[in-house]
């Protein structure tokens, strides 16, 4: 442990976004979280000295890293594969921060960034010139890593959403591709009537990230800050409208209630029992790999809208390459983080391993994503996601207790499915718990009134 | 009685049977076909994929698992035997206190100790080394408990005294007489510890970051978590899981013979 941790007060004074929100003094109470034991410091290097960086990720990007090592002889990056995100990856990172021996670079999802900020786990990259890179990335993704006006991570990829649908089956039942949620519901009724046991879609009551995306599209804000206070609005009118919509579909048996990305769901994709999926761009590989027999029958359409003619989209999943607090070579680490996420060759290699939708601008054109796909009947389906990415509301923010919020939401939806309350009351319940969690961290928080 | 046992046996064997069947399928078949019967048999293809994926990193994990479980299990057994025997045979001040502290260790879940251990090991720079998993694996409070009980029942004081009269030192007595007498207990302790280390997930998760030092549990989890983007990893994870239970099954079959004889010996003596 080479340096004493900076004072909590100075560390935690960070704002919730670049969109003009001033720095927060929100995190000045006596919290229970343990901060990073070592702070970032640039170590000088002799000319010709090789710098070694350690990079923790669960995305299989070894080939990209190899390319970097070949083209950058002075900076060697060692990639170490760790278990994914909440499956153990973050636990490792937080332990390493506490112990003062974190890797230089790490894969951190957007919704997890505030939790890392809370323990002072990310290096302030603005000090190392990251602001200049701003124009190279999609604005909403860039903003996910900006706290108190300072850049704290380099965005990597996201999951703009669309409607995957079985064109052949919808045509067979005389259904137009639903452009609004009202049409989606009508289509669901038709499929139930004519589909011989099929359903238009499946609703997963235990997928809070997906449900958050649905509320995001509706224009909800689950969390924002006013001065030094966190305002939690999971139970606002818009989120409730989304909850009531899906409640109705579930109640009228218009959708299967089951987890997507599960074995039963994959089987129903293969047999045509499930006809659409409201999914992210990175879901293309799932359909291709797990339902190969349906090749050529799928198409992609924009997300249905709440009002006809609108163009609102949503995002599911997304990650960045962060320089963790404690690195001794932040300058070199930043250089690598920018390269791996924006260099066209690097992006091509990343696309090949399915890392998601590029956060860098201008790399999509001509990439492996930018071509017609026989699985989707020759559609240039990624054009839909390009448009979707541009239509994502940029002001959405995550709370520093997102993991716990998701757990509460999953529990409450589960209880609602078991007959205790409704999806709307589940939102109210989760909101109350989310406020309690923030208070327990020593932060100021309240429910949106 | 037979019917009841048959039902119980089926209940326990069903998941294993599923694993065998599932390991023969492609990812699409895994989800699209009936779980308890074969569909697209591509067993050899799957297994060769498991072995060759990512430059054969599966071999690495297997070797590591054997290293952690084998060496960790053997040393834990030896230490537990020495401690249990000492607690059973020697009279010294604080003997019961020591034994009770060890017993309390049985109640502490190893998961709760992983983080403090990690901080300690980081302090001395041993994190992300083989030692970080091996050293904590060498301790088995349950083993000490079992060995003490067994030694009290199975090691006759007369034998020890006879050996002492013949001029054997304490270490020699332990090495030649005690270890042999206690073999059944040792096999049990070793088996428990081996299985425990083999299946351990949290300790290596926290301690290791280099995937070439991972044991099978951790390695297969990294595959599983990438299966979202690479569906063929579903079949590899299942295939790998199938292969990873084979050594445990083998250890059980080979060692149970000692175990059985040990139990009867204990009953006669005790």
From TrEMBL, chain A:
Gene3D superfamilies listed in its UniProt record: Periplasmic binding protein-like II
Pfam families the record matches: SBP_bac_1
Keywords: Cell membrane, Lipoprotein, Membrane, Palmitate, Signal
Entry-linked InterPro entries: Bact_solute-bd_prot1, SBP, TAT_signal
SUPFAM superfamilies in UniProt: Periplasmic binding protein-like II
Record-given protein name: Extracellular solute-binding protein
């Amino acid at each position: 442990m080479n340096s004493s941790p900076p004072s909590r007060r100075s560390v935690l004074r960070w704002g919730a976004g670049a969109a003009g929100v001033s720095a927060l003094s929100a995190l000045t109470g006596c919290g229970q979280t343990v901060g990073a034991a070592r702070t970032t410091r640039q170590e000088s290097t002799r000319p010709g000295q090789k710098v070694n960086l350690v990079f923790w990720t669960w995305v299989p990007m070894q080939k990209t890293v190899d390319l970097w090592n070949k083209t950058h002889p002075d900076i060697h990056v060692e990639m170490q594969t760790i278990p994914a995100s909440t499956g153990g990856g973050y636990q490792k990172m937080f332990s390493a921060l506490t112990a003062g021996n974190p890797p230089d670079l790490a894969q951190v999802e957007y919704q997890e960034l505030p939790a890392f900020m809370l323990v002072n786990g990310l290096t302030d990259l603005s000090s190392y010139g990251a602001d200049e890179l701003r124009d190279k990335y999609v604005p909403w993704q860039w903003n996910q890593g900006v706290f108190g006006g300072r850049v704290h991570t380099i965005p990597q990829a996201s999951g703009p959403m669309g409607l995957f649908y079985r064109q052949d089956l919808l045509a067979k039942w005389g259904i137009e591709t639903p452009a609004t949620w009202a049409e989606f519901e009508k289509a669901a009724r038709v499929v139930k009537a004519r589909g011989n046991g099929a359903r238009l879609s499946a609703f997963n009551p235990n997928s809070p990230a997906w449900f958050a995306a649905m509320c995001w599209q509706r224009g909800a804000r689950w969390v924002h800050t006013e001065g030094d206070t966190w305002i939690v609005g999971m139970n606002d009118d818009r989120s409730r409208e989304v909850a009531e919509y899906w409640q109705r579909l579930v109640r009228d048996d218009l959708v299967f209630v089951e987890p997507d990305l599960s074995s039963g769901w994959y089987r129903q994709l293969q047999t045509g029992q499930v006809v659409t999926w409201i999914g992210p761009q990175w879901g293309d590989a799932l359909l291709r790999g797990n339902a190969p027999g349906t090749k050529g029958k799928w198409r992609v359409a924009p997300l249905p809208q709440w009002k006809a003619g609108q163009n609102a989209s949503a995002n599911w999943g997304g990650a960045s390459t962060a320089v963790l607090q404690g690195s001794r070579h932040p300058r070199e680490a930043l250089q690598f983080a920018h390269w791996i996420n924006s260099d066209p060759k690097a992006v091509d290699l990343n696309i090949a391993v399915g890392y998601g939708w590029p956060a860098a601008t201008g790399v999509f054109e001509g990439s492996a994503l930018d071509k017609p796909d026989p699985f989707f009947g020759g559609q240039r389906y990624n054009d839909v996601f390009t448009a979707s990415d541009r239509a994502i509301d940029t002001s959405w923010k995550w709370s520093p207790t997102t993991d716990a919020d998701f757990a509460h939401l999953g529990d409450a939806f589960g209880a609602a499915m078991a007959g205790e309350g409704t999806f709307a009351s589940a939102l109210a319940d989760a909101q109350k718990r989310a406020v309690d969690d923030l208070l327990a961290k020593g932060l100021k928080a309240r429910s949106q009134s | 009685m037979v019917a009841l046992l048959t039902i119980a046996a089926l209940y326990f064997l069903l998941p294993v049977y599923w694993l065998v069947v599932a390991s023969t399928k492609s990812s699409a078949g895994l989800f699209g076909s009936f779980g308890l019967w074969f569909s697209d048999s591509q067993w050899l293809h799957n297994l060769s994929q498991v072995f060759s994926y990512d430059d054969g990193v599966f071999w690495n994990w297997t070797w590591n698992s054997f290293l952690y479980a084998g060496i960790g299990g053997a040393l834990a057994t030896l230490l537990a035997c020495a401690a249990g025997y000492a607690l059973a045979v020697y009279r010294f001040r604080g003997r019961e206190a020591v034994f009770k502290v060890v017993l309390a260790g049985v109640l502490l879940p190893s998961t709760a100790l992983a983080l403090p251990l990690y901080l300690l090991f980081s302090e001395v720079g041993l994190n992300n080394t083989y030692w970080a998993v091996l050293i904590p694996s060498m301790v088995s409070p349950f083993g000490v408990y079992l060995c003490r009980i067994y030694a009290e029942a199975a090691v006759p004081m007369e034998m020890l005294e006879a050996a002492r009269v013949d001029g054997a030192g304490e270490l020699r007595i332990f090495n030649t007489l005690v270890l042999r007498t206690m073999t059944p207990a040792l096999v049990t302790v070793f088996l428990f510890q081996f299985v425990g280390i083999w299946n351990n997930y949290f300790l290596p998760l926290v301690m290791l970051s280099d995937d070439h030092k991972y044991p099978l549990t951790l390695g297969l989890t990294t595959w599983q978590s990438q299966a979202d983007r690479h569906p063929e990893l579903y079949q590899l994870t299942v295939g790998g899981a199938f292969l990873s239970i084979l050594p445990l099954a083998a250890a059980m079959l080979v060692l149970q013979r000692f175990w059985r004889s040990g139990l009867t010996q204990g009953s006669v003596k005790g």
